[in-house]
Amino acid sequence: MTTTAKTGKMGNAEFHKFFVDELKDIYWAEKHLVTALPKMKKAATSPELAAAFDKHLGETKTHVETLEKVFELLGEKAAAKKCDAMAGILAEASSIIEDTEKDTMIRDCGLILGAQKVEHYEIATYGGLRTLATTMGHKDVAALLQQTLDNEKATDEALTGIAESLVNAGAVAE
After folding, report:
1. Among 6, 33, 102, 144, which residue's beta carbon has the most beta carbons within 10 A?
2. DSSP label at 100?
3. CA-based radius of gyration for the chain
4. Where do the domains of the chain lie, and which CATH numbers do they carry?
């Protein structure tokens, strides 16, 4: 494998294709998360959790735009490829809503768990993609992916904070 650090171009076309394919995967995931978060917000019992989902919706829309910028920087068309992992995680989040009673902290506990599964998937993906971009010499792309990675980590920490300060104790008391 060869890289040309000065130009940021990858010498291995298959590796570049793999990288772009993985970008298409997370692009699909983020676009579908944009449709799932309003449902999660609506299902939330606590105003704090609903506000967290609302905040993350805005951030997720920014993630979609950032990925579009990444595609542009790479000279690629922004395209989505079904992400089976995110499809499964979002299906699980929907089943949490169906399987828990409305207006309960138990539902909120489940929603947080589901949302953190999403965050952990995104953290793993963005961390890996950032590393690949760095390996290929795409410093500008790596910087954008790092920004999104930092945001995903902050969202995960915020969800933990809501769980620990409010939701979990409420769920135990129900």
Report:
1. 33
2. S
3. 18
4. 10-173 (1.20.1260.10)
Q: Which two tokens stand for residue 95?
A: 């089943």
Q: How far apart are the first and last CA of the chain?
A: 57
pLDDT in tens, 111-157: 999 999 999 999 999 999 999 999 999 999 999 999 999 999 999 99
Provide CB contacts within 8 A for 101, sequence distance 6+: 107
Give residue 134's identity as a one-letter amino acid code: T
Nearest-CA neighbor of 92 among 106, 111, 120?
111
| CB 106, CB 53: distance < 8 Å | no
35 has which bridge partners? none
Alpha carbon distance 86, 104 (integer Å): 25
Smallest CA-to-CA distance from 55 within 165, 151, 167, 164 is with: 151
Q: How far apart are CA 94 and CA 81, in angstroms?
A: 21
**pLDDT band, residue 6 (cuts 50/70/90):** very low
pTM above 0.70, yes or no: yes
Supply the pLDDT for residue 46. Answer: 96
